[in-house]
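Q: For a teaching handout, I want to show students what a protein-ligand complex looks like in token form. Below are the inputs, and the small molecule is alpha-L-arabinofuranose. Please produce the holo structure.
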Amino acid sequence: MSHEAPQSQPKFSRRSFLRDASALGMGFLAPAILPGRKVTAQSSDQPLRARLSIDPDHRLGTIDPNIYGNFIEHLGRCIYGGIYDEGSPLADPDGLRNDVLEATRALRVTQLRWPGGNFSSGYHWRDGIGPKDQRPTRYDLAWFQREPNTYGTDEFVATCRKLGTEPYICVNMGTGTLDEAAQWVEYCNHAGGTYISDLRKKYGHAETYNVKYWGLGNEVWGNWQIGHKNADDYAKAAVEFAKVMKWEDPTIKLVACGNGDPSWDRPVLDALVGHVEYISAHHYTNADDLKDYYEILGSVAQLETTIRNSALTAEAVSVRLRKPTPVWTALDEWNIIYNWSDGGKRDDVHKFEIPYNLRDALWVAAALNCIQRHCRTVRLANLAQLVNVIAPIYTTPTGMLLRTIYYPLALYANHSGPLGVEVAVESPRFTTQHFADRPYLDASATYDEAQRRITLAVVNLRKEGDIVGAIELAGVRARPGGRAYQITGPSPDTQNSFENPHAVITQEVKFDGAGDHFEIRFPRHSITFLEFGIEAR
Ligand code: AHR
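A: Here is the structure, written as tokens, with alpha-L-arabinofuranose included.
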């Protein structure tokens, strides 16, 4: 069966689009962002055609910088042997890997979630403070690994400070108590003069940590969770946690544990709406299950459904219970994964070290498009995870590799503007079994009003050939001198490796689009990111 949906080709009013590639607005330039990748020839078939229209006045909302968040969990080699590697020649005096810090800074991570994930449901934070040689080693039942506790709250906050990112701590609502959660806030955010806050000073940290974001447990709805509960039991417990944590520090922002399903989110928010600023939702596309290229890429539809459902419930409950600012969605774990069975590997620290390929980078870019399109309701998001475990950054004791998914994350976080704007996409489509028809071109756009600058991100999911896009601007013209960046590779299976670390990277490509309409050729299986100034027509 063909994956191609019956095409009604977009009808174009202004131009004919059957053009020689050389006459189009874009061609390849020598790599300008990272060196080393060979430029591949474009496919020679007749490209399909599409149209993308942007009106900078059609605003979707302000993009909260917190959507460019990330996550580190005590799982596999994310922390130990990942971001934290005491004694390594690659680490700084605090044991943090310099190469990982540098690569993370380039990702512009706005907030960083820790310590889990599932790990948080069995974690006692007092184990991870004080002299390292006196910290207990425990056995973690979330991931069946020894936990030496040499990386704890002080090390995490130090990591965030070095990265210039906000810490986001998820408290233990599995085996943890109210006291532990309240005292964790006290340890981090009280100036001193109490036993717990003076401990922080005693251990060398005079200044308060001022941790703003706190999660009320992780995936408590799942039976794999230590201390799994039903919605009513969770809601009852979480209200008490929220109360005491905010009594410790009324300025903190709380994230209720949600999942995007109203049968959980509604009772939880009915109880918690007055106590929390966010409700969480997680999305993982499991490529083990979907297998097929187009099914996997089409699954971003499911992410979109989760976001919509989370926001619908949050807004409905917020309105009904008269909360002036609605509860926002915190998509605090999202990614594409495979080898899910790694999670049960007892005492093996090499868990979920996925060698991501170009297809996965396309999925990540399409997910970022989706998150940006939902910027009105998604106000915080965390790629899961940062290092080694389902991660853009991979380490060995002697080196580091940037996986394919690193590049879209860096591109969007560094170049997107502060407002989301609508892109009307008329594109040929592909069929899927699980997610109906989907457009080959997946797009999002942003606008920077002060700088009069638009960005347009377009993922061409089509693996059989290029697509020529007609870009139309309503009421404005693109000024010459814009820039274009592209991520692609010889095939969707292409991976980065130590032998060929730049097989899939971001390259700056030639772009001379200008005026109120121009054409761009989007190579097969590629991400294209345009950035241009605008002026009134
Ligand atoms: O990110 C890996 C795990 O996936 C997290 O610990 C958990 O919250 C989710 O199920």
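A: Two things your students might notice: The longest strand covers residues 48-62. The chain is about 25% helix and 25% strand.
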